[in-house]
Structures are given as structure tokens and as C-alpha cells.
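Field guide to reading this record: the first block holds the primary sequence, the second block holds the structure written as C-alpha cells, and the final block holds curator observations. Each block starts with its own label. This record concerns FAD/NAD(P)-binding domain-containing protein, catalogued under organism Apiospora rasikravindrae.

BLOCK 1 — SEQUENCE
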Amino acid sequence: MSAIKPDTDNPEFFDVVIIGAGLSGINCAYRLMKHQPGTSFVILDGRGSIGGVWDQFSYPGVRSDSQIYTYGLAWHRWPFTKPIAEGSEIMEYLHDAVSKYHIDEHVRFHHKVSRVDWSSQRQEWGRYLARWVVMGTGYVDYESPVEPDIPGLDKFKGRVVHPQSWPRDFHYANQKLALIGSGATAVSLVPAIAKEAGQVTMIQRSPTYVVASPSQNNRTPFWIPRGLLLAWRWLYWLIRPYLLVLLANRYPDVIRKGLTAGAAKELPANVPVDPHFTPRYDPWRQRICLDPNAAFFKAFHRPNVRLITGEIAAVTDHGIRMRDGEAMDFDAIITATGHRMVLGGRIDIRVDGKDLAWGGRFVWNGCMLDGVPNMMFMLGYTNHSWSLGSDNTAMYLVRLMNRMKYQRARSAVPRVPEDVAARGTQSIWQLDSTYVREARERLPVCGNTGPWKPKNRPPIDWLYARWGNITADLDFSM
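BLOCK 2 — STRUCTURE
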């Protein structure tokens, strides 16, 4: 299927079409079944399996970069003891959830959506005649990974591998590998590939904050009753990251010193914190990388792992030459240089035949676009787990559907007031990473007041999504 558009020969009607069978789409389906019983819905996914990014990413060491007690599904218990989960464990967990609650019965695979069309006359989205469309497509461009701007990379005679499309036939045992990058992917990859590779050289242009974290949950006070153990863990991992972000914004120098001191304790003497772990930016201006059980730091104690911080002058036929003149030969280059950010999975939106771009459009309550009726998109947090934000969106959806049923309304469309637009905009993504700067023109924006402000306070947002005002600046049509 190439688009959701009218099909008069064989029409199907659903109250909700969810696009994407990843964590956000699965969670939204459960919320509809739980809070909107009798609602008809379908999940469309262009791939052949559930899981979204966790089905797409298969590089060695792939794992979550936030605590699973808040990243996981609030309604399905996480069965493992460790708070940072491997990709295979997350896939096992998701398969168990969709099977247990029969969500898999609503999924249609190999249904790639390229366009959605809204008709004000029919008050419906096309082909599947859906009342609502929910974009559970994440923010990663699955089809077009970032092509790093590295001089001479196309001339390299060895293999060039991008983690986003890790090849199954890539056997790197005893090979000399260059891993270019410094973010979460690199932090996961280094300890995983160092076990088999002959040599791993991590090359970073600029460092990232990395913090070691326990691989097992051992922070439950003795006085917490066993029956409240799960609630304690959930609250602990919900509040703690939020407080750390607040402290980082208020006292960046203090948090910076703590992070660099923590890194220094884990590193060998031949890997100094400066320049390798002293970023130029303040903590949480870009995401902080978690290192379960200090596996990344421990990798640099191995004789076959090396870290270089500096500029690449060029890639040669058989290796890399740095700007300081150092040259190294490699068998393969792994470009862990980030991903391309895109919202809505590159799906075109049309309202009454008019194309509507995402870029520059105001966002209502972190989940709807100004001027677009009956469409929500899942957006997580930059300073916390993704699924907390997407679950809030699911609650907005079920509450709004209830409200519209009560009012006998058929559609709801956000309209940004002139005074809100006049007060200026701010970024929807509260980080300053390279992939965010590259995508800025394609991203919608937030305002500075009311339901148009960004959602960046997880505990308060959680309460508001369940009991706050959900009708402000919405127009309803009967």
C-alpha cells in the first residue's frame, strides 16, 4: 500500500489507524483497548515484524539508553532484573506483550504508508476511512541513514559499515576496525566488538559525557515492602533523571565536574579525561550516554582498544590519516556518526487536497499539528525515556475521543492563536545535537505559552495528560 486514500471498491472503516508497530504503536493500541473498549483500530507497519527501531537495529551491543522501568510499557511488567536492556530482550518483551493482550491480531505488516489524506467533507482520513490517524513512527529515518562527510571515505578499499544497516555477513573477528563516532551507538558498540576484533580504534571529533551505571537494580531501600517494589523502581527512575536535568541546567559546572570525575575513576592511566571525556558543551545540551556496568570504560583497559580525539584529514585507500599527521591502516570502517531525524516517517499529509509540511508548524500539547484534524504523533522526551511521552499522547487520544463522543463531534483541529504565534517559537527538541541542527527546518515548533509549550517536565506532563485541559485551542466540528 502506497498511501491512505479513498478506495470506493473495497472500503474499510476504522476509528483509529495507527502507523508503526513499534513500542509507541503497541502502547497506543493497548490504551485504546483498555480505555476505549469497542474502538475499531488497525496497526499498519511497512516491515515484517513488530518492534520498530528494535527490529531495525541489529548491530552488536544494541541496547536501550534509558532505564527500562520508564522506557518499558507501564501495563506490562519488565521480566528482567537489569534496568538497561539489550535489544534482544526488548524484542522478547514486546512480542510477549502483543501476544498476551492479542494486539498482534490488529497488525498488518508490509503496509508502507506514504501519504494520508483528510477530507473535511467526509470528516475522515482516506482509503481505510479512518476517523483518527496516529503516527507511531518514531524520529529515526529508517530508509536514509546519515552519510558522514568524511573526505575520501568513498575511496576506502575495505568495508564501510553503518550501524543502522548492519550487514549480517560482516565478520570482523581479528580485523583492524576504525569506529568513527562518540554517541550512544559508539558507547554500545566498542565493548561488544572488542571481544572479537583484532584491534578497535574509536575516533571521535569531540567527546560525549558518559556515565557508568549499575547493570542490576540494587538501589531499593531495605524498608520498601516487597509488594511495592515495582512502584518504587518506577518512581525512582521517573524522578531521578528529571532532577538530574534540572540540576544540570542550574549548576552545569558542578554536574560537569561530577561526570568527568566519574569517568576518570573508570579509565586506565593511558586514557586521560582531557581531552577524551571533556565535552565543549554543558551537560544535557546533548544527551548523556549511559554505560551499564562501566563496560565501555572497561574496554579501554584492553590492549586491543584505543581512543583518538581529533579531526580526520582524509580516508585513504587502506586507512585514515588524522590532521595531526598520524596515519593508520584498517580493514573496515564503522561510521557511528548518528542518524537522520524525521518525524512522521516521511509520510505526506494532505488536508482537503492541500499538502501540509511539518517544518515550522506549531505543535499542540506535544502531539498534534496546528491545522491538521484528528491526527496525533508520538513524541518522547530528550531528557527522559521515549515511552513516557508517547504514553501521554495515547492518553490525550483516549480522553479526546471520549470528549468528542460526549459532544457528538466528528473532528478536532488545533488552531494556534495569533497572540501565541506573535510571542515567537522554540525548538520541539530540547537538545543541540548535530542530527537536530541538520533536521531543524523539517521539524515543527513549539510556542511559549499554553498548550503550545514544549513538554519537558515528565512528572507534570504525566498528570496533565490524564487530568489536564484537553480542549484549549481546539476547534470541534460536528
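BLOCK 3 — OBSERVATIONS
The chain has 13 helices and 25 strands.
The radius of gyration is 23 Å.
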